[in-house]
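In the laboratory, one determines a bound structure by crystallizing the protein with its ligand and collecting diffraction data. In a computational setting the workflow is compressed into a single prediction: the sequence and the ligand go in, and a structural description comes out. We illustrate the idea with coenzyme A.
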Amino acid sequence: MLTLLEEMQTSDIDEVVAVIESHDEDDAAEAEASLRRVGGCMDMFVLRHNGKIIGVTGYSIPPGCDQTYWLSWTYVHADYTNQGFGRKILKELINHLKTLYARMLFVKVSDYVDDEDGAIYAAALHLYQSLGFKIELTHPDYYDEGEAQICLGLRLSEAPAMIADIDIPKENVPVEFNSVFEIPETNAAYTFSWHEEGERIFSKEDVIIGLQSVREKQGRIVFLSFPSNYNGIKQPLLEAGFKESGKLPDYYEDGIHDQHYTYKF
Ligand SMILES: CC(C)(COP(=O)(O)OP(=O)(O)OC[C@H]1O[C@@H](n2cnc3c(N)ncnc32)[C@H](O)[C@@H]1OP(=O)(O)O)[C@@H](O)C(=O)NCCC(=O)NCCS
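The predicted complex, in structure-token form:
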């Protein structure tokens, strides 16, 4: 049961955007666009203090995964930080997710260092790690040259015994690329969208066509990821110049990871 947090309403958007703006205007603009979409406030929660919204947190559910969640916009107004509110709202959200039988919770954070304000996400990184999140993956130059994305994960349900020994058979799943697009919140970092269609797995030549298209759009870097149990993914990517860049463990289900690849121009 939630005691501190309240479900966010669309009428709360202006106050929530002000909370985020107290830290970063660009984040506030991105968050506002997302919150104003239909259903954008779903699974978001606010913290009120003396009637005023001073904190926000929430989660999203990636498709195709077994009880996996991402932490979404989590902010405490800059006038109220370092008083324990962030820890309280995160603990309450984590407990709420446990009641929903969540298995894994992931969060992304930037290592951005502002000229005036310093490492603005350092408190978040500290807080997540002190709550048990572990750094699973770091993507250098993700948001921009010199600004990495750090992905952390927290197991919320008990791990099955001998998880390392789970033998997940490789599957022959056909995979086709359908477009290339710039990743939101980044400067010229791209990814390819893909679906499970066609007769075969993409070839090295298909990958090179995608890279050519990103090059024409002046992309800096390309990030891709696939379930670790798909057969034949690694070879065409490595042959086209991608490098393996780590994995989010047990992302799809216990024993099936999200395997990441990076190509730098
Ligand atoms: C992250 C955030 C939500 C934390 O809220 P908060 O109310 O300040 O959190 P708390 O007071 O419960 O805890 C803050 C912790 O960070 C630590 N901290 C503060 N500044 C820090 C810094 N520059 N470097 C490392 N740790 C720092 C505090 O010591 C405290 O840790 P402790 O409890 O072990 O002493 C808030 O700082 C914030 O909104 N930051 C900007 C947005 C953000 O980074 N969001 C997450 C990424 S989307």
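The chain has two domains: 5-155, 163-264. Keep in mind that any predicted model is a hypothesis to be tested, not a measurement.
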